[in-house]
Design goal:
The chain has helices at about 5-25, 85-90; strands at about 35-45, 55-60, 80, 105-110, 115-120, 125, 155-160, 165-170. The chain has about 180 residues and is of the alpha+beta class.
C-alpha cells in the first residue's frame, strides 16, 4: 500500500469526523422556525455555562397575576436558548441583568419535540421594577396588564434587539 494514500485517507477521515459534531452543534433544526410563541414570565435561573446561554422561566397566566402551574401545582418551567454567554453579554443579556424574579417577555421558536424550550427570536423586554416603597422594601417587578407583554409597560427595557443594544422604552440607549 502506498503510505501517502493511507495518510491522506486518515486525514480525510479525521477531518470528516471532526466536522460532524461541529455541524450538529450549530444545527437549529430541533426548533420549529415556522412557529413563534411569545411568553411573559418570571426568571427562575440563568445557565451561563451552556454552549448557548439559557434563561429558565415560569410563564405567567393571561391575567398576569400568577405563573402557570402543572397538575401537581408546580410551576411549568420553560427554557429559552440564545447565543453563547460572551455573545449574549455583548447584547446586554447576562446573569446580572436577569436575576431570579425578573419579569420579562420573550419570543421563541419552540422545540419540535413539544418540550418546554425554544430558541430566542428577537429582543427580550424586561418589565420595570416597582419602587421599593411600593414593594415592601424589596426588589419586585411590575407585570404587564392582563393579556399584554412587558413591551407595553411604561419604563420597560429592550435588550438584545436587532442591533443588540439595550434600549429604554422610548428607544434611547440605556445607560447603566
Amino acid at each position: 500500500m502506498n503510505k501517502k494514500r493511507i495518510i491522506g485517507g486518515l486525514v480525510a477521515a479525521t477531518l470528516t469526523a471532526a466536522a460532524v459534531p461541529v455541524f450538529a452543534h450549530h444545527s437549529f433544526s430541533i426548533f420549529d422556525a415556522s412557529q413563534t410563541k411569545t411568553f411573559t414570565g418570571v426568571v427562575t435561573r440563568v445557565n451561563p455555562d451552556a454552549n448557548h446561554l439559557q434563561i429558565f422561566f415560569a410563564p405567567m397566566n393571561e391575567e398576569r397575576k400568577n405563573v402557570i402551574r402543572d397538575e401537581n401545582g408546580q410551576p411549568v418551567i420553560w427554557a429559552v436558548e440564545m447565543a453563547g454567554s460572551a455573545a449574549s453579554a455583548q447584547q446586554g443579556i447576562s446573569v446580572a441583568e436577569f436575576p431570579a424574579g425578573t419579569v420579562f417577555t420573550v419570543s421563541l421558536h419552540p422545540l419540535r419535540s413539544g418540550e418546554p424550550a425554544g430558541a430566542r427570536e428577537g429582543a427580550l423586554y424586561k418589565c420595570p421594577e416597582k419602587a421599593p416603597a411600593q414593594a415592601g422594601g424589596r426588589k419586585q417587578w411590575q407585570p404587564p396588564p392582563a393579556g399584554k407583554h412587558c413591551d407595553s409597560v411604561e419604563g420597560h427595557i429592550q435588550i438584545g434587539g436587532d442591533d443588540g443594544v439595550p434600549r429604554n422604552a422610548d428607544g434611547t440607549l440605556r445607560r447603566n
